[in-house]
Amino acid sequence: MHRVIFQIGRFSLHTWGLMVAIGFGVGLWYSVRRAKKVDYPAVRIFDLAFVVMVSAIVCSRLWYVLTHISEFKGNWLDIINPFQGGGFGIAGMAMVGGVVGVLIAAVLYCFIKKINFFEITDIIAPTFLLGMFFGRWGCFFNGCCFGRPSKIFWATIFPPNSPAGSVFPNIAIHPTELYESFIDLAFFFILVFFEKKSKKFVGWSFWMTFFFYGLGRAFVDYWRWYEPQEIVLKYLGGNLSIHGAIALTFAIFALMMVIFKIGKKVKQ
């Protein structure tokens, strides 16, 4: 594992940050490409992309803090302090919090700009799954979002200086980061393929994106390791965390929206 690519003074380039940036960049590129195909103004894609980036960072951090509040008792400044551990940067993000924050920010952006929410999110939303493919590889290299011990042949031993290695030193565990990465990539291709054949209303791609994301996230949750206070259900030797439960709620709600065609009618 290579958590840090290089370091100059207190600044270090982490693989996680690089992979997330690549995922965001690829998602933006593909979103603009999709926008051009339907003659949608690319400038709106760039504007919303900026809103998405900022809200994702802020809300991912906020969600992590709220679900790990004991880590910050007596050191509240660490919530926003970028100078920790001898380096520069803030560690501790929670993807589900970022997703919730992005959705709220996107709704507000569309309301303020008076543009149709489903038209623009149908273009952008599927690329979220593509970006997640790269982002979860960043988690793998960082050793976060890891799984529980396993004896399967692809189980991975993480270095002791990583989050996974500190919890399970010299113990092989499920590489749940890669599970979710490849599941999201598969869902992305499935969505794009059926988008051309099954899209019946504007909003279909948006809802299906979050149906697939929530389903995949909850599925992988079974093998992920969590602190006891984060687990809401244990079943068949696995678990479901508060994060996975919320993701599953996303999936169920999104599926209902697809069934009832909540969005905008396609122009004939």
Describe the structure.
- There is one protein chain.
- The protein has 268 residues and is mainly α.
- It has one domain (4-265).
- The chain has helices at 15-37, 42-67, 95-113, 117-142, 163-167, 176-198, 204-221, 242-259, and strands at 4-8, 11-14, 83-84, 87-88, 201-202, 231-235, 238-241, 264-265.
- The strands form 4 sheets. The chain has a two-stranded antiparallel sheet. A two-stranded antiparallel ribbon has the order 3-4.
- The longest helix is centred in the N-terminal third of the chain and has 26 residues, at 42-67.
- It is globular and about 60 Å long.
- The model has no long low-confidence stretch (mean pLDDT 89).
Q: What sequence of helices (H) and strands (E) makes up the elements?
A: EEHHEEHHHHEHEEHE
What's the tally of helices?
Answer: 8
> What structural class should be given to the helix and strand makeup?
mainly alpha
Global morphology? globular
Within the largest sheet, what's the order of strands? 1-2
- Rg: 19 Å
Query: How many strands, what sense, and barrel or not for the largest sheet?
Result: 2 strands, antiparallel
Tell me the number of strands: 8
The percent range for strand residues is 5-15%
- Tell me roughly what share of residues is in helical segments: 55-70%
Query: How much is the average pLDDT?
Result: 89
First-last Cα distance: 52 Å
Number of domains: 1
User: Unreliable segments (pLDDT under 50, ≥5 consecutive)?
Assistant: none
